[in-house]
Write a sequence for this structure.
């Protein structure tokens, strides 16, 4: 059917008396009739006897029977899925039919059906119904309706052809020439042009189903006693197969003559819809575009209809708000609209999609100013802080859409925003999020799974919120049980940011005068096999380990004894060193002989990073020499989670001692444990440890190939997906290339690669375990370019 034909409403030519006779004969219903506004059908409200009020509809002669059948069956489906949803119910005829055929005197055949009448006031006629609360509630009800219809199918879902179908908007475009106002005509033309290029193709990528697509203020009923409360959705005549976005924009189009912020309308309705039928990212980002298109369509249709000579009941009483709302919304702009819509539904806010699909950058300078004003001048990775807005797999994306290959962040071990982890967090948070004071399956299951391959003496878990907390607590337990207050660490170690773990991190205080060093902590010489004093010594393990004797003696001279030796076996902060074989066991034996415990800090080395799940095993520290394991960072793939693993015997001793009320409010909450379980799922299902070990070897192989051409590369070392690259100005003297490394980090950033330092002249490369050879090749090519500068 042509657009010109659709512009003609062709209302059925039935008199009121003819309708009375048909309804009385077919349905046995009598009462007083009041004609209702309708676009293509004839509709009357019948106030029947005994308060039985109904609506009778006589369909346009051109209406396919299948379309009416679809509407009838959709109402039945809605009742089955959401019985409390206030929509009309079908009243069967005396013959038990949902609709019947009747004939006009001139031979035209029409369908007639009767629906229950919903009480309430028409929203667009109630001034109080234009409030933000009312709009939110309307959006929530429309969302419920769309959700109830999500699994409904009918063969005529795509056959209800009418002017208001947003997916067929381009059919209306030729009517733009009938708009009398030049500026309005130009704006409509621009909107339709953009629709052809962008909006309509993008809407095809959203979720599509049968939708009401006519839930504007004329078809929403509100409670007369509380105008913010919608009590009904009527008129399913425009129902059809379309994007769910069509329902949102239709529900948002009833704009008050007193309002001047259409984005606020959109935000209220959209957030309500999202509360009952959660939106997806591509849908939230298209609402502004779809709204503009809907308003342009309405403007064109109504002005084009003015050119017809058709008479009858006016379909829309006041259409002036459509062009007014369209002009205001267009002037507010897409970037602001998408930003506010995302904020309203708590989607992460980042640059909106531009006209040609490019990302629109946010106001960087304003954001940086606000950040410093509200967060203070906190430390950044680079001279010019990056505004990162999203990440996926091995890549991070800035607000302007720039993609950065992440070779530095060791928190998203299995890749940024892994969908399985995100889904597990969402599902658990939707069911329960509470602490370990309650018995919850997921917490127990996670503890059992995490310790399954550990020896019997490492069988209990204490859950906290971070690696710092885990290390702090492990040290507290060691001090409590050993009755000692000293600690041993490796030089340049980093173990956390609490008061206790800062003392255990001489990376934080080694540059200070000796009198300011914590007296109860002693650092062991780093077992450096590249530039250390025993680098070429066949007895290097024994010679480096002997420094533990010195450290223990030094502590004793100060009146302290070692409670524990805390070690990150990846020696990440010390330059990703590779200790000589058996070094860690020799130190562990000395510490245990002195009455202390061994704490394996797996925050950076564990969870598959070193080519085995447990980093201490990758570096040769025997199970029997480990008393505590601590975890953090990647264990939840970014979700806050820390773990202390120890023996049940030590746990009982600790709890029966001076800390009987050990408890962390958020530690071990159900959502964190669900995230941890999902991380283990991914590592196993995707065989990430074995895969990453192979890719890690390939990375170091390619780095060694570069070293043949770039003398600045002094040493390459590491295991799995943990690699250290030490830079020198002279390979003979091994002079550290301190100045050069700063330039290199910034130059790699300019090449869209994120890397970071370990020591002052060592790069630590910690890509996610999901890397393939392709990511390695991208990194190597960029690194080669930077080294060649």
């Amino acid at each position: 059917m042509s657009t010109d034909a659709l512009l003609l409403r062709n209302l059925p030519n039935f008199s009121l008396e003819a309708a009375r006779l048909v309804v009385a004969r077919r349905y046995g219903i009598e009462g007083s009739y009041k004609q209702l506004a309708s676009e293509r059908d004839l509709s009357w409200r019948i106030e029947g006897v005994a308060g039985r009020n109904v609506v009778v509809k006589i369909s346009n002669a051109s209406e396919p029977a299948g379309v009416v059948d679809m509407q009838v069956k959709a109402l039945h489906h809605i009742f089955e899925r959401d019985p409390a949803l206030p929509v009309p119910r079908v009243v069967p005829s005396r013959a038990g039919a949902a609709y019947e055929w009747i004939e006009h005197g001139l031979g035209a055949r029409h369908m007639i059906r009767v629906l229950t009448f919903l009480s309430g006031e028409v929203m667009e006629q109630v001034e109080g119904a234009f409030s933000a609360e009312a709009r939110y509630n309307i959006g929530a009800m429309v969302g419920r309706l769309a959700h109830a219809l999500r699994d409904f199918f009918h063969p005529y879902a795509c056959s209800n052809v009418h002017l208001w179908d947003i997916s067929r908007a381009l059919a209306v475009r030729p009517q733009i020439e009938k708009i009398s106002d030049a500026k309005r005509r130009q704006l409509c033309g621009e909107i339709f042009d953009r629709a052809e290029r962008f909006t309509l193709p993008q809407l095809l990528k959203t979720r599509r189903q049968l939708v009401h697509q006519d839930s504007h203020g004329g078809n929403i009923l509100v409670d007369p006693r509380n105008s913010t409360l919608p009590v009904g959705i009527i008129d399913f005549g425009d129902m059809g197969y379309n994007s769910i976005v069509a329902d949102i924009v239709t529900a948002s189009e009833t704009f008050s003559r007193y309002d001047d912020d259409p984005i606020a309308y959109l935000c209220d309705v959209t957030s309500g819809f999202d509360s009952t039928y959660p939106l997806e990212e591509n849908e939230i980002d298209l609402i502004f575009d779809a709204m503009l298109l809907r308003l342009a369509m309405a403007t064109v249709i109504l002005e084009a209809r003015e050119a017809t000579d058709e008479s009858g009941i006016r379909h829309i009483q006041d259409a002036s708000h459509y062009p007014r709302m369209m002009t205001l919304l267009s002037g507010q702009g897409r970037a602001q609209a998408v930003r506010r819509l995302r904020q309203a539904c708590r989607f992460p806010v980042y640059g909106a999609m531009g006209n040609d699909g490019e990302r629109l950058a946010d106001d960087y300078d304003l954001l940086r100013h606000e950040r410093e004003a509200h967060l203070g001048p906190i430390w950044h990775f680079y001279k010019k802080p990056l505004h990162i807005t999203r990440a996926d797999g091995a890549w991070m994306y800035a607000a302007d859409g720039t993609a950065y290959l992440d070779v530095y962040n060791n928190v998203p071990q299995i890749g940024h925003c892994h969908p399985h982890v995100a889904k597990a967090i969402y599902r658990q948070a939707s069911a329960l999020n509470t602490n370990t004071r309650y018995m919850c399956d997921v917490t127990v299951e996670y503890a059992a799974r995490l310790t399954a391959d550990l020896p019997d003496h490492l069988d209990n878990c204490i859950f906290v919120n971070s690696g710092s907390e885990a290390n702090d607590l492990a040290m507290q337990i060691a001090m409590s049980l050993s009755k000692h207050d000293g600690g041993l660490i490796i030089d340049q170690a980093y173990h956390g940011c609490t008061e206790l773990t800062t003392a255990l991190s001489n990376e934080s205080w080694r540059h200070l005068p000796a009198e300011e060093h914590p007296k109860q902590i002693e650092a062991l010489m780093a077992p450096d096999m590249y530039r250390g004093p025993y680098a070429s010594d066949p007895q290097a393990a024994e010679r480096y380990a002997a420094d533990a004797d010195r450290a223990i003696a030094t502590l004793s001279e100060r009146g302290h004894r070692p409670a524990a030796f805390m070690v990150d076996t990846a020696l990440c902060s010390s330059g990703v060193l590779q200790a000589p074989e058996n070094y860690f066991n020799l130190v562990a034996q000395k510490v245990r002989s002195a009455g202390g415990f061994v704490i394996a800090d797996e925050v950076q080395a564990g969870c598959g990073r070193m080519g085995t799940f447990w980093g201490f095993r990758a570096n040769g520290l025997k199970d029997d020499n480990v008393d505590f394991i601590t975890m953090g960072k990647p264990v939840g793939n970014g979700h806050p989670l820390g773990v202390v693993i120890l023996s049940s015997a030590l746990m009982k001793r600790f709890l029966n001692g001076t800390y009987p009320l050990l408890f962390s409010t958020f530690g071990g909450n159900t959502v964190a444990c669900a995230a941890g379980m999902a991380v283990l799922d991914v590592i196993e299902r995707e065989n990430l440890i074995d895969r990453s070990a192979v890719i890690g070897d390939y990375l170091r192989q390619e780095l060694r190939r570069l070293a043949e051409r770039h003398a600045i590369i002094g040493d390459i070392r590491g295991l799995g997906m943990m690699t250290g690259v030490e830079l020198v100005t002279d390979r003979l003297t091994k002079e550290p290339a301190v100045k050069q490394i700063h330039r290199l980090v910034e130059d790699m950033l300019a090449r869209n690669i994120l890397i970071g330092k370990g020591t002052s002249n060592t790069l630590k490369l910690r890509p996610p375990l999901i890397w393939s050879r392709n990511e390695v090749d991208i990194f190597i090519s960029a690194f080669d370019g930077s080294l060649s500068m």
